[in-house]
Amino acid sequence: MVSPTLSLFVRARGPDEFWRKRKIFKLAAHYRGRRRNVYSIAIRNVHRALVYATKGRKLKKLDMQALWTTRLQAGCEQYGLTQETFRETLTRSDIFLNRKVLSDLAIWEPRSFEALIKLSRERAAVECVPGLQEPSIMNQVYGLSNLKIK
Q1: Cβ(107)–Cβ(134) under 8 Å?
Q2: What is stated as this protein's family in its record (predicted)?
Q3: In which residue ranges of the chain is pLDDT below 50?
């Protein structure tokens, strides 16, 4: 019986190398060609993809924030308010809604959003907050100015 010496034991990588490579190959399973089958190429591509995924998670958050801000600005301009004035007067009225909720209201629930706008305009007029303008003509086109909200 041959007992492995220390030098042979160090050289034999055994199952650890198999599982390490398997993890990389599983991440590269959807690639095409040698990027999928050759370890040295697969590991480079997997590492690059993981870096892009990390950056992408941050960029997705920034993109969604910009989208919500744009939608909210469009909704506020329609009723003759700036977004800053709208959010400031809502905060002064103890209504704490974030950009996402406000933009969803502007898109999917225009009557609720108009109620918030009216509340905000009244507060801005009472406290003389700058940023009030005349409402847009689009309200009359869509008939939103004729809504009676109690």
Answers
A1: no
A2: Belongs to the bacterial ribosomal protein bL20 family.
A3: 1, 150
